[in-house]
Design goal:
405 residues; alpha/beta; eight-stranded mixed sheet; 11 helices; binds flavin-adenine dinucleotide
């Protein structure tokens, strides 16, 4: 454990040696694993909990994402889930006693075709019926809300309006990671870095422990939270998950003066952008469309998103590209997460958040902790079971989740 990334100031979290057994072992030290451990320790009578991380905490999607937070999903099952998450975000800094710089600057989802206009309006009505803030803006109102958007009728895909969620925004992902790790560790959770799960000890179809690069660890219950690598983990337990893991890229420009006061997304043009506090423009695009576990993607996706960004925001023509990177996202067939039991007793899964799991960080941990503590789903994740791919009770969020994080 000599790599700098494994070290951390002791005031953030402890670095204990692995114990031989825990009541609950969580596999994956990203935001969802850490959030689950925090809520397990806080809300449930579980005495010993460990989070096992193959690399260092937050080496995966946790700090590779573009930090968009919103709750304007479409389906009856999804809306309460994402809305509870947004409510938890609203008090997360206070809850964790650590400022995660949650900034509700407002989030615009642009519509460029008649179909997108109809879809966005339907979402506005559905959201409002569920108590979620949502507004429809005409092009002139879009420009008033966010002056750098090009609302000219003469561009290739003119802006016909936008869905606005004023409570949407961004937070600082690295701070969320620090805050959750610190809070979980303070509640007694062992955070074990450099501890890769390489197999499961399964007896009579019940998991009783994990094999790791730091030895065997017995476990009462095991919760997978490996995001893009979850299919690899599940396969070690003999389970084939309906998940495709693909690269998703992002980029950031050099620091500019404040030019963008909101998060603006375009699903059709495959680009979304927000301006970080240091002035960098953070942008993302569509997924690379091949399965991969390497955290890098292909060049043409970056080229397409920059083309789209320049057409929509001509002012960005003077920005310089500073950095690009990729994470591996776990996409399910209906673009909704899978949270609950697996065919193996005492082995649970939380995956399939795909391109949109950052916003779900608090609620994902909250409901998964309940599921792990009780062995049964929370009412909010009952419908998000693995069995829906057998029953056909899918929760289709492709419109809300495919590109629009
Ligand atoms: C470029 C990009 C942009 C995104 N933008 C947004 C956005 O704007 N808004 C939004 O809501 N979501 C966004 N997402 C999605 C979001 O980042 C993810 O859905 C979410 O972070 C996944 O949860 P996590 O943080 O726990 O994942 P991760 O951080 O990937 O955690 C999984 C962890 O499991 C560990 N692991 C895997 N296998 C093993 C093993 N065998 N043993 C031990 N540990 C293991 C990994 O090392 C990793 O640290 C984006 C993702 C990317 C890549």
């Amino acid at each position: 454990m000599t790599e700098p990334a494994f070290q951390n100031p002791e005031f953030l979290w402890r670095n204990p040696e692995p114990k031989s057994a825990y009541d609950v072992v969580i596999v994956g030290g990203g935001l969802h694993g850490l959030s689950t451990a925090y809520y397990l320790a806080k809300n449930h009578d579980v005495k010993s909990i460990a989070v096992l991380e193959r690399g260092w905490l937050g080496n995966g999607n946790a700090v590779r994402n573009t930090t968009i937070i919103r709750s304007n999903y479409l389906r009856d099952e999804s809306m309460p889930l994402y809305e509870l998450s947004l409510k938890l975000w609203e008090s997360l800094s206070a809850e964790l006693e650590y400022d995660v710089l949650f900034d509700q600057r407002g989030l615009l989802q642009l519509a460029h075709t008649k179909t997108e206009v109809n879809d966005a309006r339907r979402t506005v009505y559905a959201n409002r019926l569920s108590g979620i803030d949502a507004e429809w803006l005409e092009p002139a109102e879009v420009q008033e809300f966010c002056p750098i958007v090009n609302v000219s009728r003469s561009i290739r895909y003119p802006v016909l309006g936008a869905l606005l969620q004023r409570r949407g925004g961004i937070a600082r992902h690295d701070l969320v990671m620090f805050a959750l790790a610190r809070a979980a560790s303070a509640k007694g959770v062992d955070l074990l870095q450099g501890c890769e799960v390489t197999g499961f000890d399964i007896r009579k179809n019940r998991v009783v422990g994990v094999e790791t690069s730091r030895g065997k660890i017995a476990a009462g219950r095991v919760g997978l939270a490996g995001a893009g690598r979850t299919p690899l983990l599940a396969r070690m337990a003999g389970i084939d998950l309906p998940i495709q893991s693909t690269p998703l890229q992002a980029l950031v420009s050099d620091g500019l003066e404040p030019v963008l006061n909101a998060v603006v997304m375009s699903g059709l043009l495959h680009v979304y952008v927000s301006q970080a506090r240091n002035g960098g423009l953070v942008m993302g695009a569509a997924r690379d469309n091949y399965v991969s576990y390497a955290q890098r993607g292909s060049f043409q996706i970056l080229e397409w998103q920059i083309q789209a960004a320049l057409e929509l925001y001509p002012v960005l023509g003077r920005a310089h590209l500073l950095r690009t990177w990729a994470g591996i996202v776990d996409v399910s067939p209906d673009a909704s997460p899978i949270i609950g039991r697996t065919p193996v007793e005492s082995l649970f899964v939380n995956c399939g958040w795909g391109t949109g799991g950052f916003k779900a960080t608090p609620v994902s941990g909250f409901i998964y902790a309940h599921t792990l503590a009780h062995g049964e789903p929370h009412e909010l994740n009952r419908a998000f079971s693995l069995s829906r791919f057998e029953t056909g009770a899918l929760i289709d969020e492709h419109g809300a989740a495919a590109v629009a994080h």
